[in-house]
Specification:
Layout (H helix, E strand, L loop, with lengths): L1 H9 L3 H15 L4 H40 L6 E2 L3 H8 L4 H17 L5 E3 L6 H14 L2 H30 L4 E3 L2 H4 L2 H12 L11 H8 L5 H15 L4 H43 L7 E4 L8 H20 L14 H4 L1 H6 L4 H21 L1 H10 L11 E2 L7 H9 L4 H5 L1 H30 L1
Parallel strand pairs: 1-5, 2-4, 3-4
Length: 455
């Protein structure tokens, strides 16, 4: 019964489920019913606008990617199927309904014990935690290890959401939220460290890649839509398009870069009143929870120009690396347009600096390519056992972005007692420590600033 109910809920699209959840949250925090309905509906419309624009982008960029792959003459046999088959497999995990409840209960206990500030309502993306446990179970057949790996994966993701929340708020201007999607939070520590390294390199540290700065210096030629136009021209030329096709692609990418921020603005219109109301309600009931936040999907950040442009710049880089690097067994096809989402918290960590975000994400891309290649056999067997068939394809499959998730695969191998995973545990711990220290430093600076204002 519980399994049926959970499957029914999770089959709802995110732009349907989230407005329902946020409407319920709005009523709980005593927002008047008409306003609650308006805010929740506006939130759903914002998500639809973002996904419609992204779907249009994918329709235009997919043929370009296929054309580039064809021109390389690549005979790489593993197929990139993107994240949906992995998510479908995760929801088929036999203990998924039980773990869903466990995740929510543990999150509430953490809030009660003041071990987190994030209440994660991004239920759809719980599949990331489920998939971690499912991989551990597939490789070890140890259900206890599987459950522990899922729960610890969730806890670390929530803590990363906590530690990146102030930077997210500063970047987006949306108060009372954090990003709790594993496919974005996993790279926040790496980006923070990269940003600190770049900060110590003379001259390089002076490169200001913020879209606002570029636009101020170059006028119209620095506007995101013009940068999108140039990227479209470049991609069209690389794909061998004729003049008409290049022009069509360029205008469409410029349009996507221009429209997405508007859609994000609509989403913000619905989200901000609810997140603000939720924070005020929690403060009224629990005065000590001044930093309480709602954990949201990374889609909240997709519409910002620095995120869009960084993602588009990284797409051809990923294709080139896949062709040139030895040992890569696939070309990133299905997952490549999702680069815009994967780079969100990297852009946040680098404070919207396009240059630093791209530099920080290149080693992540390399890691993803090798991990997704190495895990192809595991993913293929897992999907076979789950009864998920990739139509008309009999070979091995993988997923570039989520299949190559650096944290998840590391966590899975750590729970297998793998020697290389144990060996780099100090590096992983150092990344976590630096992220926590940066969070503490940011909070201390804010506390000092408020103290001076009060004084």
């Amino acid at each position: 019964m519980l399994d049926t109910i959970m499957n029914y809920i999770l089959n709802l699209e995110v732009y349907v489920m989230l407005p329902i959840v946020m409407f319920i949250v709005s009523l709980i925090i005593q927002i008047p019913i008409k306003q609650a309905m308006k805010h929740a509906l506006t939130l759903g419309i914002g998500f639809i606008g973002i996904f419609m624009t992204l779907d249009h982008f994918v329709a235009k960029i997919a043929p370009v990617i296929e054309q580039v792959v064809e021109q390389t003459g690549s005979d790489l046999t593993v197929l990139d199927v993107g994240w949906p088959p992995l998510a479908a497999a995760a929801w088929s995990f036999k203990i998924a309904p039980i773990l869903m409840v466990v995740f929510i209960v543990i999150n509430i206990i953490m809030l009660w014990l003041k071990l987190t500030n994030t209440f994660n309502i991004d239920i759809w993306n719980f599949w990331h935690f489920l998939f971690t446990g499912q991989l551990v179970y597939a490789m070890s057949e140890d259900l206890t290890l599987s459950i522990i790996s899922s729960i610890t994966c969730m806890i670390i993701t929530i803590k990363l959401a906590d530690w990146s929340a102030e930077a997210t708020e500063e970047f987006s201007g949306i108060k009372g939220i954090s990003i709790s999607t594993l496919s974005a939070t996993a790279y926040y520590p790496i980006a923070l460290v990269t940003d600190k390294v770049i900060e110590r390199i003379p001259k390089i540290n002076r490169i200001n890649g913020n879209p606002e700065h570029i636009q101020k210096r170059l006028g119209f030629f620095g506007e995101p839509m013009f940068i999108g136009l140039l990227l479209g021209i470049g991609l069209g030329v690389i794909a061998g398009y004729d003049l008409k096709e290049v022009a069509d692609l360029a205008i469409n990418i410029a349009a996507v870069v221009f429209i997405l921020p508007r859609m994000a603005g609509i989403l913000g219109e619905g989200l901000i009143p609810i997140s603000t109301g939720a924070k005020n309600y929690l403060l009224d009931k629990f005065p000590s929870m001044e930093d309480a936040r709602i954990g949201m999907d990374l889609a909240v950040l997709i519409g910002y120009p620095a995120v869009i442009v960084s993602g588009i710049i990284l797409m051809p880089i990923a294709l080139i690396l896949a062709v040139l690097l030895p040992g890569i067994r696939f070309i990133p096809l299905a997952d490549l347009p999702n680069m815009i989402g994967a780079v969100t918290l990297v852009v946040v960590a680098t404070r919207g600096n396009l240059f630093r975000a791209v530099i920080a994400f290149i080693p992540i891309i390399i890691g993803k390519l090798y991990i997704a290649s190495a895990m192809a056999g595991t993913y293929t067997n897992l999907l076979d056992k789950a009864g998920i068939v990739i139509s008309q394809y009999k070979g091995n499959i993988t997923s570039f972005l989520d299949g190559g998730n650096l944290f998840r695969v590391y966590w899975v191998y750590l729970f297998q007692g793998n020697l290389w995973a144990i060996g780099i545990l100090p590096i992983f711990s150092l990344l976590i420590y630096i992220t926590w220290k940066e969070y503490k430093k940011r909070n201390d600076n804010l506390d000092n600033a408020f103290s001076k204002l009060e004084y």
